[in-house]
């Protein structure tokens, strides 16, 4: 029950919030030139860049969590290829030195008064604000969850509390259906719901259980993947490996005591289907961060309403946004955050000089589609869904080198490059590898 209680206390990334922050709160200064709300991938990397631009004493980050996680590696944690411990470091260790860490939760943003209110009742004012609050997981929108996670045979790579349950369910698999889901909402890293399917297939083959398994991917989407070039390769793989893909199927209920999952057919309202499972991987519905949604900064759907070219807020010019909390019309990934940090850094430096931002974000995002324990298809694309590949090779092909990039190189780039404000995405390398042509 303790794990379940923690899951109920989850904030958007699924990271439990520690209640022990009083000392830091008591000393919180009340005004900052640059206030960053959210200390995840976008928040920490922008605070490192803002420290360089404005000096540490002028920057503060509001973030309640004691731990900072590199979420992309949870795909491999759920498949037993990495440990959960390797995915996390203390927030204190990633906070740029000298930058003020306000260990609280933002409760309200008031852009008309340039203030933010925290859950301990403090008010912090700012001259400039960067919103980096991520998105909200909604396990509770599926009937039977999150309490269903108390049962075995079910897991989710999407939260720190449930990712190891995926690995346990996979190891315990004997025979029957292994079911993987994709919800009827926008998600972060849209490839992750199916990456764990390919890894599970590989694991069951390795352990001699594959003949006794039906592997089923039930997705709400009308496609396997949004970008045709990569979807074509993935369709070849699912056919070769005998993986069953059912489109427009949305998980609405889990009866964990009976190991049953209920799906609705999105093309035939009211039609439902019950699937028995021996293993279930749930990708939860997701939505806007609730603080953003409840503020004047939101668009109609609740996402932070920013200019897609320069990440400046559309109505409040001293407010900027980055990452999963925004309405940028691109896939929500850490790779997108990296590219956005370089753009946002340039935008803010121009705004501070009363100049017009001139660097334009092309929507670059990337999804390393892990297709086994040693292969990856490295999908990279832009706002228009056009491939924007870094390497001068066909990245729609499964490659070992790309697996090493995902498993070994990218975590280093994250901890030592992105979070220190030194990595702004592979754009310059792409230009170099393509002799300036891309
Ligand atoms: C299973 C999985 C696999 C993934 N795979 C990949 C991948 O292969 N490649 C890739 O590029 N990306 C991947 N991602 C996506 C990537 O992790 C996210 O897109 C990225 O972390 C977004 O960064 P962010 O700063 O917008 O949000 P986050 O990193 O989620 O940070 C948001 C921060 O805001 C804080 N916060 C929330 N609410 C409040 C509040 N009220 N007050 C104060 N702080 C608050 C949170 O504590 C958190 O620290 C994956 C994600 C998951 C879960």
UniProtKB/TrEMBL annotation:
Molecular function per GO: FAD binding; glutathione-dependent sulfide quinone oxidoreductase activity; quinone binding; sulfide:quinone oxidoreductase activity
Gene Ontology cellular component list: mitochondrion
UniProt keywords, alphabetically: FAD, Flavoprotein, Mitochondrion, Oxidoreductase, Quinone, Transit peptide
Compartment annotation: Mitochondrion
UniProt record, GO biological process: sulfide oxidation, using sulfide:quinone oxidoreductase
FAD/NAD(P)-binding domain residues: 32-330
EC number(s) recorded for this UniProt protein: 1.8.5.8
SUPFAM superfamilies xrefs: FAD/NAD(P)-binding domain
Obligatory cofactor(s): FAD
Signal peptide start and end residues: none
Catalytically driven reaction(s): ubiquinone-10 + hydrogen sulfide + sulfite + 2 H(+) = ubiquinol-10 + thiosulfate; a quinone + hydrogen sulfide + glutathione + H(+) = S-sulfanylglutathione + a quinol; ubiquinone-10 + hydrogen sulfide + glutathione + H(+) = S-sulfanylglutathione + ubiquinol-10
Catalytic EC class: oxidoreductase
Origin superkingdom: Eukaryota
Cited Pfam families: Pyr_redox_2 (PF07992)
Protein function: Catalyzes the oxidation of hydrogen sulfide with the help of a quinone, such as ubiquinone-10, giving rise to thiosulfate and ultimately to sulfane (molecular sulfur) atoms. Requires an additional electron acceptor; can use sulfite, sulfide or cyanide (in vitro). It is believed the in vivo electron acceptor is glutathione.
PANTHER family associated with the record: SULFIDE:QUINONE OXIDOREDUCTASE (PTHR10632), SULFIDE:QUINONE OXIDOREDUCTASE, MITOCHONDRIAL (PTHR10632:SF2)
Similarity field: Belongs to the SQRD family.
Protein name: Sulfide:quinone oxidoreductase, mitochondrial
Species the sequence originates in: Cyclopterus lumpus (Lumpsucker)
Gene name of this polypeptide: sqor
């Amino acid at each position: 029950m303790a794990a379940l209680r923690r899951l109920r206390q989850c904030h958007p990334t699924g990271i439990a919030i520690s209640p022990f922050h009083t000392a830091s709160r008591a000393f919180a200064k009340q005004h900052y030139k640059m206030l960053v709300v959210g200390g995840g991938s976008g928040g920490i990397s922008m605070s490192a860049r803002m420290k360089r631009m404005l000096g540490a004493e002028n920057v503060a980050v509001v973030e309640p969590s004691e731990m900072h996680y590199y979420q992309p590696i949870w795909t491999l944690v759920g498949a037993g290829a990495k440990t959960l411990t390797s995915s996390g470091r203390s927030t204190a260790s990633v906070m740029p030195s000298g930058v003020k860490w306000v260990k609280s939760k933002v409760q309200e943003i008031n852009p008309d008064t340039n203030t933010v209110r925290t859950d301990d009742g403090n008010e912090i004012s700012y001259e400039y604000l960067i919103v980096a609050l991520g998105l909200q997981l909604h396990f509770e929108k599926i009937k039977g969850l999150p309490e269903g996670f108390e049962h075995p045979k079910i897991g989710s790579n999407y939260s720190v509390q449930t990712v190891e349950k995926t690995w346990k369910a996979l190891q315990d698999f004997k025979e029957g259906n292994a079911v993987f889901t994709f919800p009827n909402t926008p998600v972060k890293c849209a490839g992750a719901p199916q990456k764990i399917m390919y890894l599970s297939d590989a694991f069951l083959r390795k352990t001699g259980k594959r003949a006794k398994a039906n592997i089923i991917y039930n997705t709400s989407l009308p496609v396997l993947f949004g970008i045709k070039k990569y979807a074509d390769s993935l369709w070849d793989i699912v056919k070769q490996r005998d993986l069953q893909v059912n489109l427009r199927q949305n998980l609405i209920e889990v009866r964990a005591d009976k190991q049953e999952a209920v799906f609705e057919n999105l093309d035939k309202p009211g039609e439902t289907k019950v699937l028995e499972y021996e293993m279930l991987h749930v990708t939860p519905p997701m939505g806007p961060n609730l603080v953003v949604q409840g503020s004047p900064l939101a668009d109609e759907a609740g996402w932070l309403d920013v200019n897609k070219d320069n990440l400046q807020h559309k109505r409040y010019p001293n407010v900027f946004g980055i990452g999963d909390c925004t309405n940028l019309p691109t896939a929500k990934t850490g790779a997108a955050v990296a590219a956005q940090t370089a753009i946002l850094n340039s935008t803010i430096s121009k705004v501070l000089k009363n100049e017009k931002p001139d660097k334009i974000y092309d929507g670059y995002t990337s999804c390393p589609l892990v297709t086994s324990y040693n292969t990856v298809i490295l999908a990279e694309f832009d706002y228009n869904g056009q491939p924007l590949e870094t390497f001068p090779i066909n990245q729609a092909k499964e490659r070992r080198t790309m697996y090493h990039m995902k498993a070994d190189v990218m975590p280093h780039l994250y901890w030592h490059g992105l979070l220190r404000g030194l990595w702004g995405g592979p754009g310059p390398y792409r230009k170099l590898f393509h002799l300036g042509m891309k």
